Amino acid sequence: MSIRRAALAITCAILSGCTSPRTGVPAPLPTVQLDGNAPASTRTAVSPAPAGGITASGYVVAATETHISSPTSERISEISVRIGDKVTPGQVLLVLDDALARAQVSQAQAGVAQAQAALDGLTLTPAGPAMRQADAVVEAASVAFSRTLSGGRSSDVVAAQSAVYAAVTSFQKLKSGPNPDDLALVRANFLSSLAALKKAQAAYDTAFSANQAGIGATPASLALEQATNSYNAAKAIYDRAAQPADAAQVAVAQQILDAARAGLDRAEKPASELDVAQAKAQLDLALAQRDALQPSPAQLASAKAQLTQAQALLQSATLALSQLTVHAPTGGTISKLTVSTGERVSPGALLLVITDLERLLVETKDLSERDIARVGIGQSVSVMIKALGQEVPGTVVLIAPQAETLGGDVVYRTTIALNSPQTGLRPGMSVDVRF
Question: Are 79 and 340 in contact (CB under 8 A)?
């Protein structure tokens, strides 16, 4: 019975708390703030704003974050950094397998040398033996034609005899092969250019080992190109000198001899109309044969275009090779490394991320559309860094022009710069911002 009375007393005491102790009238409810923008039937109670003003939550972000992607599809051969390493602009980060790219550069270099040799063959041949022989044929035919027109004189006979002697000597020399002294001279020039090429190649290899990315702009690269061109020219001259005269050269020498003998015959007797016509025909033929040795404008243009194309291919191959060594475009800290040595990556695949931890910002994520009108660029704010337990001043530096939706609410992102750097601050830390 005593327990029942006690329970009843407690129940009465609880109920009495809902009424005025003196009058028994129910006590009024606490005052709440209503959302004035909503219709009266849908208004909801909200807590009063803090004494400091508008608040929003957010997190710490890096001011700059550089994403580095793969330039091509290749295997990772070397990684020079780890997560957390600080890097400087230009520092090597990783290297992709460059065996194929090196082979392509070598092939392109050979293509340039071949195209250059072809162009040199057109532009330098007129100064060679074939052109000198053609000039001699024209000169002999021209003299013979002039003498045919002028008739036989004693001086012409002597000159014709000398021409025959010179033509016979030249013909016999051509058939007997190159002069040992001349051959020794061009051979010595060839061996000298070969030694210079080997020396330039060794210097290039040394410079390449020291600076693979910038090898194309080094003096060693230019010296190797010049040595290669000199070697190709010297080898071509030596090959021509070392070879016995071909049928075409013998035929030219025979033409000179025949023209000289014909000139002697004409000098020793008066020329007939037939002799004049034949002399004129010989001169025209000699001129036509010399003109045939001259490269045409179309041939020169084609050779130059092929050289330009080969040089462009070499430049492209060299650039592709240099891109396989990935350098840091900016300084910062390696915050993400998505690949490992030996892994094959595809073009555009993310390799790593460089974050500037020296410049950190705060970004809010839930500033309501109802409060955005009272926030402006340059406004001073207070930032509470939860992980550090510190409240520091900051300044609004950016307000997103486009709203976002967060849990059904319309919000705007704002970016805030801290007025002073904070020790221990890291990207991703949560904050509360009071505007």
Answer: yes
Residues 377 and 385: their CA atoms lie apart, in Å, by: 21
Q: Which residues contact residue 238 at a Cβ distance below 8 angstroms, ignoring those fewer than 6 apart?
A: 186, 187, 189, 190
Strands 360-364, 92-96: pairing is unpaired
Assess if residue 236 is contained within a domain: no
286/294 Cα distance (integer angstroms): 13
Length of the chain in terms of residues written: 435
Measured distance CA(410)–CA(202) in Å, rounded = 69
- Per-residue pLDDT of 58-115, as tens digits, reads 999 998 999 999 999 999 999 999 999 999 999 999 999 999 999 999 999 999 999 9
In a domain, 202, yes or no: no
Q: How far apart are CA 230 and CA 58, in angstroms?
A: 69
Q: Choose among 281, 234, 232: nearest CA to 258.
A: 281
CB burial readout 111-144, b (16+ within 10 A) else e: bbbebbbbbbebeeeeeeebeebbebbbebbbbb
Q: Enter the tokens of residue 281.
A: 């025909």
In the chain, the number of structural domains is 4
Tell me: do 254 and 157 sit in the same domain: yes
Tell me the C-alpha to C-alpha distance, in Å, between residue 53 and each of 56, 375, 386, 393: 10, 11, 19, 15
332 touches 89 (CB < 8 A)? no
Query: What single DSSP character describes residue 259?
Result: H
Q: What is the pTM of this model?
A: 0.47
Biggest alpha carbon–alpha carbon distance for the chain: 173
Tokens of 189: 């020039």
The pair of structure tokens assigned to 18 is: 């809902």
**Co-location of 418 and 297 in the same domain:** no
How far, in Å, CA of 115 to CA of 327, rounded? 34
Q: Is residue 83 in a domain?
A: yes
Q: Residue 398: which CATH number?
A: 2.40.30.170
Which token pair is 84?
């957390």
Whether residue 250 is found in the same domain as residue 173: yes
Residue 125 placed within a domain? yes
Tens-place pLDDT, residues 198-232: 998 998 888 888 877 777 777 888 888 888 988 89
